[in-house]
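Q: My labmate handed me this sequence with no annotations at all. I'd like to see what the chain might look like in three dimensions before we decide whether it's worth expressing. Could you predict it?
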Amino acid sequence: MKVLLFAILDHQEETEKLLHQLSSEGYNGTVIPTSGLHHVLPSFNDSQTGAISLSCMVDDLPSGNITLFIVIEEEKVEILKEKIRNATSSFKKIKGGMFVLPLSSVEGTF
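A: Here is what I predict for the chain of 110 residues:
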């Protein structure tokens, strides 16, 4: 059975190193830039008050989070989770988290 591993990680240099490592080891997945609530809510307040946020002016700088998801065989997921734990120092060096969902049906070249 295949499962879907989600990892939400702070975007920083170590996160990019982890992604390069996983890619070089043959893992294939999708990465989406995401933002947590604490990053999004201030911009909502700025739009209501008419104030200009400096963060809006530097959107091209890496910030926020990345969300990685990988479809993987269930028997291989623990190895992948351990690689993520090691790279993040159990989410102390790189803040974030991960979870796994079972997939009842998968089609495509995962």
